[in-house]
# Entry
Amino acid sequence: YSGSGLDLSDRLPLFEHEPSEIVHRNEIVELIYNNLSQVEKMIIMFYYHEGLTMKEIGEVLQISESRVCQVHARLLERLKEKYREEY
# Structure
């Protein structure tokens, strides 16, 4: 669009990270996500996608807030282990 006054760079999304980092992170998340139980998937969805608190997640899933925290902590450890194994 040279000479048209349009600058395409204004229309491109801004990334906080390099695209290769985003792909790399998405591959790791997909690898972990495929091995999660239904409850674990729901905790991830509610916490990271819906923005619910651990207490709210516990109420929805009818488990204690401390149990939600335990499952979430275990998920983070598994993610770290998978990351170390893969890279």
Remarks:
- Residues 1-15 have pLDDT under 50 and may be disordered.
